[in-house]
Amino acid sequence: MKRLVFYWAPAMWWAAVIFYTSSQSSSDQDVKPMMGDVIAVEWMRPLVSWISFSYHGRERSVAELGLEPFLEFMIRKSAHFGVYFLLALLIYWAISKTVSIRKRNLVIMTFLLTVHFATVDELNQSFTPERTPYIFDVLIDAAGALAALLCVIGWSFWKKRRGRG
To answer: For 130, left (φ over 0), alpha (ψ -120 to 50), or beta?
Structure first.
């Protein structure tokens, strides 16, 4: 039992952090005031002003949103990728240490559990003021999980090759 808790606690703790932060309203997580007052971001304008795309039926660009709101949007979407990258690594580690399973199935199970949590978490946002669930956010989360698992596979391959040489 202690072994299960030891290996699963980091993944469960990280999932709780994700769930907690996605249960906060957007205004509670607003970083735009900090960008103007604490961090000088104006130097980034020429670097990002050419970026324009449609997301959830709205144009996302510096021209449309302004610099700080556009940067905050990009930070939020990057955070989706990053937090699910880490969650996938933690779930992979927990499963690999507590369940006897083939590597391929371990990767598949990790991916499915991570995406399942992303889906549930996104649905949770439908109950949070100023938040809306969006399938594309789940796809960003899935991309983060996939990137983590590709890193694990690459690392395993590299270790195996290195051991032979």
So the answer is: left
Question: 107 to each of 37, 104, 112, 138, 149, how far by Cα in Å?
Answer: 44, 5, 9, 18, 7
Instruction: Return the bridge partners of 52, or none.
Output: 61
The pTM for the full model equals 0.87
Distance CA 29, CA 129 (A): 12
**How confident is residue 164, by pLDDT bands cut at 50, 70 and 90?**
low
Q: Which residue has the tokens 């991916």?
A: 111
Among residues of the chain, what percentage have pLDDT more than 90? 53
Question: What is the residue type of 140?
Answer: I
Q: Please calculate the CA angle 142-82-147 and round it to the nearest 5 degrees.
A: 50
* DSSP secondary structure letters along 73-84: HHHHHHHHHHHH
**Cβ atoms < 10 Å from Cβ of 133:** 16
Alpha carbon distance 95, 119 (integer Å): 20
Q: Where are the domains of the chain?
A: 2-164
How many Cα atoms are found within 13 Å in the side-chain-facing hemisphere of 81? 9
Rounded Cα gap, residues 137 and 50, in angstroms: 23
